[in-house]
Amino acid sequence: MADIEIRTFELTDESAVIALWIRCGLTRPWNDPKRDIERKLCVQPHLFLVGTTGQKLIATVMAGYEGHRGWINYLAVAPQYQRQGIGRLMILEAEQLLVEAGCPKINLLVRTTNSEVIRFYERLGYVVDDVISLGKRLESDES
Q1: Are 64 and 43 in contact (CB under 8 A)?
Q2: pLDDT for the residue numbered 141
Q3: How far apart are CA 99 and CA 70, in angstroms?
Q4: Taking the CB of the first residue and of the last residue of the chain, which one, N or C, has fewer CB atoms within 10 A?
Q5: What pLDDT, on the 0 to 100 scale, is given for residue 143?
Q6: Where do the N-acetyltransferase domain residues begin and end (predicted)?
Q7: How many whole angstroms separate alpha carbon 133 and alpha carbon 50?
Q8: Per-residue pLDDT for 1 more than 70?
């Protein structure tokens, strides 16, 4: 496994983070990654983590807690560093920060077609909840 440092996102990381999210297939037209970063920096920015090796940004995870349950978003590991335990380290760090905030439960969303990622989370103790995720866009990011 690469020698990895996990730290809080810094403004100078923005372009590398967006490039990583694009390479990992996490971006969607209706979610402008630049706006998602701007929004996160206004709410619990200490829960937006990046993983680096040397000067190279290779991983991200964005967490949040609203007093009822925590959320994990934007877990990404550069393809050449996947399957080395880095995603697990990123999740464990985010979980620890959520525990320290008093969070009793974490939720996350995975596309139903992404069976490999579902198995990854199941190995970390996550289970499929018998729920339907509903959403409502309050602000459009599409140009």
Answers
A1: yes
A2: 77
A3: 9
A4: C
A5: 61
A6: 4-143
A7: 27
A8: no
Q: Using alpha carbons only, give the angle 45, 49, 51 rounded to the nearest 5 degrees.
A: 155
133-to-23, 71, 114, 117 alpha-carbon distances in Å: 26, 13, 16, 18
pLDDT at position 139, please?
Answer: 81
Residue 4 contacts by C-beta under 8 Å, 6 or more apart in sequence?
A: 51, 52, 53, 58, 59, 86, 89
Give 103-125 pLDDT, tens digit per residue.
999 999 998 999 999 999 999 99
CATH number of 5-124: 3.40.630.30
Tokens (6 digits) for 106: 């974490």
For the purposes of burial, counting CB atoms within 10 Å of the CB of 108, is it exposed (0-12), middle (13-18) or buried (19 or more)? middle
Q: What 3-state DSSP class applies to 14? A: helix
**Dihedral sign from CA coordinates of 4, 128, 141, 69:** negative
pLDDT of residue 3: 92
Query: Domain spans of the chain?
Result: 5-124
